[in-house]
Amino acid sequence: MMDIHLLLLLIVFLSFLFILKPSLCYASNKDICTRGRDFIDKDGREVILHGINLVCKDKNRNYIGPWDEGDFNKLREWGINCIRLGIIWDGLEPSPGSFSEEYLEGIDKFINLASLNNMYVILDMHQDLYSHKFGGDGAPQWAILDEGKPHIHIGDLWSDAYFTSPAVKTAFDNFWNNSKAPDGLGLQDHYILSWQYVAERYKSNPIVIGYDFMNEPFIGSDIDEVWEIMKKEFLKNTNLDLSAEELDELWLTDRMEIIEKISELDAYPKIIDSIEILCRRFEVEKLMPFYKRLISSVREVDKESLVFLEPSVLSNVGVYSAIKKIDNLQVYAPHAYDILTDTPFMSLSDLGRISMIMERHNKTSERLGIPMLIGEWGAYGTSEGVRDIALFMVQLFEELRVSETYWAYSQKVREDCDYFEAIRRPYPVRVAGSLKYYQFDRKENKFWCEWEESSSIKSGTIIYLPSLSYKDIKVLPDFSFRSERIGESDSGYIIIPNDAKSKRIEILF
């Protein structure tokens, strides 16, 4: 008979393996997996994903962007190590049950370019306003069940149509209800099968680390109730003498007056919290069942890729998310935008609102015990006066040690943009142990990073620097390192070998 102590030790050991197995990368085909709230590479190093979005919304190009080798080389020089690459349902499944090989070959080209430049890829099934038919992108024509409702777009922003278009709201309602497509199969069923097809194609590609199943899931017609509650809360917490109808008109014609009043009276959290119950209902009753079915289908063919689950789009502006953990390789993937995003007033964005949004995202990640990647932030384009806002976002990323992908790469993102240093910035790419903190002080032009090394990790720590022309560098305790330049640029990496000690690096540029 087995000794009782030996039996207990065996049980503990097996339990330990069972707990750790989902977070170990060595048995995975993929280069990145998760451990707790961290991304981990095959060597066990903690990874920070610093990325950018590449999403082509142009139907005339069949949603295949114009990016080439030069673009990817440039992004690598900027320190980008991850691409959130858009795939569009309309391009993928142009007719029911028929998937376009030509379209996916176009996507393959960008994945190959990413691989050549040591970048990971997250595939993002992108949508805005449900479909191209409504001035956005997403669903193919055959999957638009708008019941003949009119598409009414009032307001200066593209996203205003979410509130004003009966057609957009009805199309989403039918998607969440899994209404039947012309071939008799449900819309969600088609969408899920399309993701299974994609997963089957990329399951063995080590740099395609995961799937962002739906960009900014929208609540549908329940947005009308959301809007009515928000208006009541606004009128209750401000002294503007307006009717609900007048407030509607003012929001669509001169919303700065409303936003200034919200900021002045610190009413934003109250307004946002007033709609949490409705958003929770959507996530619990519609979004999570959809995600569960999707993950179950994808896991039939791909058990190793990460799944990036976005909350309701309203969480992107600060509503607490009710999203649940349903997979061992799950990542929380919200976006973070101030309510002035896409307006001419982006330079007036409120740092308090931005901080609140990020704090709430972080609390959700803590509640779930999974990594967080901010899938979109910025959208600064050619805006002026946004440098301090962009750098404040970066400060929050550093404090929370979260990964992110900037929205978005285009000809508008140039090295002479006043916010460019928020994109091309020093950060720890891979840490041979546990990252404690890192920070770049732009006033002193000094970078700090501290980590606790692990004896089980043989590879070194890698830190990206936008310039290798530093004035001084110290690794404490005193330790040798080497530099590696990226192409012909001045940017590159510092590689520090691991000797299983606590280390701190200080770099003065």
Description:
The longest helix has 24 residues, at 276-299. Strand 19 and strand 20 (492-496) form a beta hairpin. The N and C termini lie far apart (67 Å). The protein is α/β, with parallel strands linked by helices. Helix 7 (187-202) packs across helix 12 (276-299), helix 9 packs across helix 10 (255-264) and helix 13 (351-368) runs parallel beside helix 14. The strands form four sheets. Strands 9-8-7-6-5-4-13-11 form an eight-stranded parallel β-sheet. Helix content is 34%, strand content 19%. It is globular and about 70 Å long. The protein has 14 helices and 21 strands.
Sheet with the most strands, sense and barrel status? 8 strands, parallel
Strand order of the largest sheet: 9-8-7-6-5-4-13-11
Beta-strand residue fraction: 15-25%
Q: Specify the helix fraction band.
A: 25-40%
Structural class: alpha/beta
| Low-confidence runs of at least 5 consecutive residues | 7-23
CA-CA gap between termini? 67 Å
Helix count? 14
Extended strand count: 21
Report the mean per-residue pLDDT as an integer: 94
Radius of gyration: 24 Å
**Tell me, what's the shape?**
globular
Structural topology:
Layout (H helix, E strand, L loop, with lengths): L3 H17 L11 E4 L2 E4 L4 E2 L2 E5 L14 H9 L4 E6 L1 H4 L8 H16 L3 E6 L35 H4 L1 H11 L10 H16 L5 E5 L10 H15 L6 H10 L1 H10 L3 H6 L2 H24 L6 E4 L20 E3 L2 E2 L14 H18 L4 E2 L1 E2 L9 H14 L2 E4 L20 E5 L1 E9 L4 E8 L7 E5 L6 E5 L5 E4 L6 E5 L5 E7 L1
Parallel strand pairs: 4-5, 4-13, 5-6, 6-7, 7-8, 8-9, 10-12, 11-13
Antiparallel strand pairs: 1-2, 2-3, 3-14, 14-17, 15-16, 16-21, 17-20, 18-21, 19-20
